## 1
Amino acid sequence: MKKLIILGLGVAALFAYPQCTMCHNGSVAVDLSKISYKEVKEDLIKFKKAEMKHSMMNFVKDMSDKEIDEAAKKYSKK
């Protein structure tokens, strides 16, 4: 079971950006379209800096500031 979880996280990491909706479609994780741009960006930065312990840390650790900004704009509340 542990191997399946690790494999699943690895596969998810390959598609994390720009396909954040893979999990954030309202059924698996928080629906990003209901969160403000500022909140999404702040959380992504916290994940990147490992200030918030979460599996998202693996997805955002290699994102540039520009990619974080683009993702926050694309997926946050319009």
## 2
Amino acid sequence: MSKIFNAVITAVALVSAPLAAHATATIVHVKLEDKTTGPKIKGMVMDADKTSVPAGKVTFMVTNESKALVHEMIVMHAALPVTKFPYNKATQRAIESKMHSMGEVSETRPGKSGTLTVNLKPGNYVLMCNQPGHLMSGMYEKFVVTK
């Protein structure tokens, strides 16, 4: 009987561990949308339910609402506005190697989702999609981390 009890306790601990990690983090839900999402969406949209959070662990729960396009969400520490980001016009992408990425949920296919947990210090950030043409089409969200 004790072997079964120990197995049950171990199983509960394994299932609870990921939930405990999220319990101490601020949760931010992010929707990635474009014209294929639905008739109300007129362009490229990154929609976060919170754009300001306290410093510490932040878990981004990202969902690609698109019906046709791959998107991603990158958390960039940003001292400059998006229009001043290092940008390669030929590839229509920000030059990530010249920026400070905190992490990403990359290449999220239509209807799929992903999660990213990062420890953020106070400052200005940008949540952005760096698929070709998406960033300069407005697929970003300013994000502030307070003390």
